[in-house]
Design goal:
Layout: E1 22-23, H1 27-34, E2 37-40, E3 44-50, E4 60-64, H2 72-93, E5 98-104, H3 108-111, H4 114-128
Parallel strand pairs: 1-4, 4-5
Antiparallel strand pairs: 2-3, 3-5
Helix pairs in contact: 2-4
């Protein structure tokens, strides 16, 4: 037969999801975020607002790409990249009690190198939190 052996123990890598981000779904939440703080970078436009005490707890995030970004394939690719950027950056830089909306940029969100998108998101988070 073969010399295959079972694994010795579980993989001790980092967890797949470290913080559960609640996703914004209501238009009213997106509108409130659009009227609050915002910061544009070449790859991402970030909108953020601090919620009132009686509203939901935790970090909430929404993603949007208009038809200016491109056809459905381009918009979906841009949103997938925005979701991954949020999954990486928000647990380390996001604040509890805040809503964030990530807006995709025409041509750039889907085509920029991923490291550049991460740097853009980190820079925008610093600016929004002043």
């Amino acid at each position: 037969m073969t010399d295959l052996k079972p694994p010795v123990g579980p993989d001790v890598g980092s967890p797949a999801v470290s913080v559960c981000l609640e996703v914004l779904k209501n238009r009213s939440d997106f509108v409130r975020a659009s009227n609050a703080r915002r910061q544009g970078t070449p790859g991402i436009h970030l909108q953020g607002r601090k919620r009132a005490q009686e509203e939901a707890v935790g970090i909430r995030v929404g993603y949007t790409c208009s038809k200016k970004v491109g056809n459905a394939v381009a918009r979906n690719r841009a949103k997938r990249r925005l979701r991954e950027v949020a999954r990486i950056v928000l647990p380390e830089m996001g604040r509890d009690g805040w809503d964030y909306v990530l807006v995709g940029r025409k041509d750039l969100t889907a085509s920029l190198p991923f490291e550049t998108l991460l740097a853009d998101m980190r820079r925008a988070m610093k600016k929004v939190h002043g």
